[in-house]
Amino acid sequence: MIEFVHVFKRYPGEYDALKDISFTLERGEMAFVTGHSGAGKTTLLKLISLIERPTRGKALVNGKNLNKLGLRRVSYFRRDLGIVFQNYKLLFDRTVYDNVALPLVVAGLDRREIGKRVRAALDKVGLLKKERVNPVVLSGGEQQRVGIARAIVNRPALLLADEPTGNLDIVLSEEILDLFLDFNHHGVTVLIATHDQRLIQRAGKRMLVLKHGEIVHDSAARADVR
Amino acid sequence: MIRFLRTYARRHTYVLAATLAQLVRAPLASAMTVAVIGITLALPTGLYLLIDNLARMSAGWDAGGQISLFLKRDTADAAAERLVQRVQRVPGVARVDYISRQQALAEFKRLSGFGEALDLLDRNPLPAVLIVHPSAATAPDAARALLAQLSALEAVESAQLDLEWVQRLHALLAIAERAVWVLGGLLGLAVLLTVGNTIRLAVLNRRDEIEVMKLMGGTNAFIRRPFLYAGVIQGLLGAATTWLILALALLLLEEPIAQLAALYGSDLRIEGLSPRASAALLGLGALLGLVGSRIAVSRHLHTIEPT
Fold it and tell me: Nearest Cβ partner of A91 from B8, B209, B307?
């Protein structure tokens, strides 16, 4: 699903945000990216979601070469991704339903199909009863669950999450993690950037550790060596 | 293909609904933009209407002017009458009016105010005149040729073509028409900028939404669409406002114009915009809205990328 070979990312500010990143994430796999702030977690996710482009190296995501994908194809590429944000990025000028429906509206599905899928997604995150409210009245945990419903409503092959529990307490964080584990159980490839070690240990999945833009530890690689 | 078209139609319906909702949600800002467009377009359109009406009125006047033939003083009335018959048969002549020396004197007395003084003269100093009206389709050049032909007649002392004031009027109208185009062009540009600015603010106001849409896989075309719709709708409503402004202005002017026309013994009426001109006005408004919003959106959409 994701294949990075000697990928570098340098920002105009003259430092390498990512240095010589090589790793592979198989279809259906789940992994965490961790490290201190500034280690490059967010940059890595930005490369995968094509918010940024690699400076050097080969990066394949969902069979697409990120260096060669034309500007016009970026939108269509992103429709196969589900992205969850630390600050949720919900729109407060519309209902929960309309927020979750957005990726489907953008993709041009018909109203009935949108209704079915949105309700299925909201049901999955346990917010079916809140579809008519404005997300601004929801708690942080509920808002993040709306964000997750929106990320999975288009049935993406790959689910990315950048600090999805960064603003949540322990109990809520574990609820969110359980959702991700469940999606992965149903075959979705999941990559989560987090500095929450407890979460990673509880999940018991693969972990990539970034430090100053380099992968200094890959639990899967170590397992291979062993 | 059918599926593609259905998707396409569905998206446009969605966008139209969303755009209308957006305009209704900010009624004051939308109304102000529409009003500015309406007033801006009213100026050139009103001028166009004025010139159109002037041109229509003057079209009824003799384009070829009229030719005055002053007869030699010793021409007898009978001979003059025969001349009238002859001139009437000349091709290109529509009508001939004969003013005898007595009539000329009487008219001069009445109009000049020298009535008493003229009585002192022992004989009538005025010549008899034939007023020749060329037929309506006569071009100025043909009228001049006619003048040469008529002035060669034996009894004619001198001939004069009163063409210049008509030509001057037409020249003035041509200038005014050109001025309307220049003014219209400038004010059209003003409409573009007005719509562009409104749409620019709308784009910046919805920065978050645009960013999220881009992250969800919204193409630029999809994101651009509601803004283009908003531009077209505002342009269309602006043009409709222009139409209303002009209709109101004409309503106010109708009575004084009728009075003026009555003073001149005519039934002249100012005509409003024809259905075709109205359609053109609305189409122009929509087009200006589309172009203005297109420019603004293209300029600003690229600056909003997810970070």
Answer: B209
Q: Whole-model pTM?
A: 0.72
**Closest Cβ opposite residue B212 in set A72, A102, A108:** A102
Best of A86, A94, A102, A143 to disrupt the B interface (most B CBs within 10 Å) is A102
> Does the beta carbon of B16 lie under 8 angstroms from any beta carbon of chain A?
no
Lowest mean pLDDT among A15-19, A56-60, B264-268: B264-268
The DSSP-derived string for chain B is -HHHHHHHHHHHHHHHHHHHHHHHHSHHHHHHHHHHHHHHHHHHHHHHHHHHHHHHHHHTS-TT-EEEEEEPTT--HHHHHHHHHHHHHSTTEEEEEEE-HHHHHHHHHHHHS-HHHHHTSSS--PPPEEEEEE-TT--HHHHHHHHHHHHTSTTEEEEEEE-HHHHHHHHHHHHHHHHHHHHHHHHHHHHHHHHHHHHHHHHHHTHHHHHHHHHTT--HHHHHHHHHHHHHHHHHHHHHHHHHHHHHHHHHHHHHHHHHHHHTT---------HHHHHHHHHHHHHHHHHHHHHHHHHHHTT----
Confidence of residue B265 (pLDDT cuts 50, 70, 90): low
B-chain residue closest to A47, CA distance: B307
Nearest-CA distance from B238 to chain A in Å? 27
Inter-residue contact B134 to B65 (CB < 8 Å): yes
CA distance B91 to B99: 22
